[in-house]
Write a structure and sequence with these properties.
Blueprint (H helix, E strand, L loop, with lengths): L27 E3 L5 E3 H5 L24 H6 L16 H18 L23 H11 L6 H26 L2 H14 L7 H15 L4 E3 H12 L8 H13 L3 E6 L2 E7 L6 H18 L6 H9 L5 H11 L4 H16 L9 H8 L12 H24 L3 H7 L12 H6 L14 H16 L3 H10 L16 E4 L28 E4 L22 H15 L6
Antiparallel strand pairs: 1-2, 3-5, 4-5, 6-7
Length: 563
């Protein structure tokens, strides 16, 4: 009976005995099928076959070389070993040594993930490589280069790693602010439309409701049925927008169309698409294909946010992306990267990787491909090592995305307003990266955090910042007589209790920067707690905050008084 294959993240321990590899009795031995087992467990096997997929082991276990790339990750001493008895000549042995060194160098990018022995990808230390890159790299590390099947797998893994590297570089060169607008522009250019996660889901379910029993309807009747059912919840639904959704399904070949003379054609849902899961998958695949045709490369987590408004559909979107990949996709991606580099000026000189990427794109990815020669293996692994090094260098020294995300300061308004998309549509295309709250609990949590941070600011800090701003001690900040009212003003450059250099008003420290209260003469207005662009909500003035501001004003008016 075959044993269940281990998780790919547990690459530093034997999947049979679950003990960490070492250089003494538990040496990691990789097999031609791509599985790695410690030498002790291999010697205990009753049959000379892989315990996971029953692939026959054609070479004596004692002659198989130890996986030195894994040994260096667990901190063990790596002994030099050359399988001269498995290579045809000195030249092949030299090529094998170069290829092995390339794998060992690439494996070092998994080192931050294994800061302690036996720790896999669940370590708190983050790698510079993304999770898809890590997974493909682990696949390459497990390849046994002295076996023909292992060399074939190594070449396929190198090609897959190179293709993912190109995708990562394209993502690094895309403008995330324009990504969404470019995607929907490409969808509209094909006569289709995406109405938002919630409304699109309801529209697809209504299409399924009308046609799941095998009914054949004209396009006009189908659109009117969906619009009438949608209008109570989504008043913005129109025949034009729903017609564009139907067109999207038509492009995906979901309908069986029956033409009639001098009358509208009848549309019948194909039998394989009469469940919501199947229809939605084909719908999502069509949108991903449109994006690829437009030269857009979007990560699975971004797809999940755009199409579903959450992060729980990443695996679903990744499977769709993988299914749409063809052998020609790699070369097309290389061309798209070249165009992106020409547009940005290529400050990291990534054009030098073009020849290596072309070499990787020419590798046959089919399982029936002939085994590569030792020279081809050496050239392929050297190429993938070079392009991965180029990606890492770009991320560390030239990419703004990683540093921007780590150093992005949290604004005082962060998640202190409800998200308009979540309120009106039931979903947000930005997902967890949205700067607005998605629930009442999240709203209350961040408002309390904001108030706690504001309350910790000492009065002396505000006065010091007033002095640094070059403003007077404000004996004439407000008139001695007359009503003191609260109104709305535009955001100033200094917030949370600091005066703007161009204004002669005091900003209340108890309010957010974009909707600050000011003390001035005029008409009383209500403050809005809605996000910008949302319908205004009325909010009564907090008398405790107003009283605190009056005390602060009194102190500023009489600086000589010992308070």
């Amino acid at each position: 009976m075959p044993v269940q294959a281990p998780q790919w993240t547990d690459f530093l321990s034997c999947p049979i005995c679950t003990q960490t590899f070492d250089e003494t009795i538990r040496k990691p031995i990789s097999l031609g099928c791509g599985h790695t087992v410690c030498k002790m467990c291999l010697n205990k096997l009753h049959r000379k076959a892989c315990p996971f997929d029953q692939t026959t082991i054609n070479i004596d276990i004692e002659l198989l070389p130890v996986n030195s790339a894994l040994l260096q990750l667990v901190g063990a001493q790596v002994l030099e070993q050359l399988p001269t008895h498995l290579c045809a000549g000195a030249e092949d042995t030299k090529h094998y040594e170069v290829a092995k060194k390339c794998v060992e160098e690439l494996a070092l990018y998994l080192k931050p993930l294994s800061s302690a022995r036996g720790v896999g990808l669940n370590s708190t230390t983050q790698s510079v490589l993304s999770r898809p890159m890590q997974r493909k790299l682990v696949t390459l590390v497990h390849c046994q280069l002295v076996e023909e099947e292992g060399r074939i797998r190594a070449m396929r893994a190198a090609r897959s790693l190179g293709e993912r590297t190109v995708t990562e570089l394209i993502l690094q060169h895309q403008n995330p602010q324009q990504l969404s607008s470019n995607l929907w522009a490409a969808v509209r250019a094909r006569g289709c439309q995406f109405l938002g996660p919630a409304m699109q889901e309801e529209a697809l379910k209504l299409v399924l409701l009308a046609l799941e029993d095998g009914s054949a309807l004209s396009r006009k009747v189908l659109v009117l049925f969906v619009v009438q059912r949608l209008e109570p919840r989504f008043p913005q639904a129109s025949k034009t927008s729903i017609g564009h959704v139907v067109q999207l399904l038509y492009r995906a070949s979901c309908f069986k169309v029956t033409k009639r003379d001098e009358d509208s054609s009848l549309m019948q849902l194909k039998e394989e698409f009469r469940t919501y899961e199947a229809l939605r998958r084909e719908h999502d695949s069509q949108i991903v294909q449109i994006a690829m045709e437009a030269g857009l490369r979007i990560a699975p987590d971004q797809w999940s946010s755009l199409l579903y408004g959450d992060q729980s559909h990443k695996s679903h979107m990744q499977s769709i992306i993988d299914k749409l990949q063809t052998p020609a996709s790699f070369a097309q991606s290389v061309q798209e990267l070249t165009i992106a580099l020409q547009r940005t000026g290529d400050p990291a000189n990534l054009t030098r990787l073009r020849s290596y990427l072309d070499l990787l794109a020419k590798i046959d990815p089919s399982p029936d491909a002939p085994p590569p020669s030792w020279e081809q293996l050496k050239d392929g692994l050297d190429a993938v090592k070079t392009v991965v090094h180029g990606l890492v260098d770009f991320i560390q020294n030239h990419s703004k995305k990683g540093t921007d995300q780590q150093q992005l300061p949290q604004h005082s308004k962060y998640k202190t307003y409800m998200c308009r998309d979540m309120k009106q549509r039931g979903g947000c295309p930005r997902g967890s990266s949205c700067t607005f709250a998605h629930s009442q609990e999240e709203l209350d949590k961040f408002r309390k955090m904001n108030k706690r941070l504001i309350s910790r600011r000492p009065l002396s800090q505000s006065l010091t910042q007033l002095t640094e701003a070059g403003l007077p001690a404000a004996p004439n900040l407000v008139p001695d007589e007359g009503p003191v009212e609260v109104g709305i003003r535009k955001p100033s450059s200094l917030t949370n209790g600091i005066l703007s250099a161009g204004d002669s008003v005091l900003i209340s420290r108890g309010t957010e920067s974009g909707y600050d209260c000011v003390i001035k003469q005029g008409k009383k207005e209500h403050l809005s707690i809605s996000a910008p662009g949302s319908p205004p909500d009325t909010l009564s003035i907090n008398p405790r905050l107003l009283e605190r501001d009056m005390i602060l004003l009194t102190r500023l008016k009489d600086p000589k008084q010992n308070w």
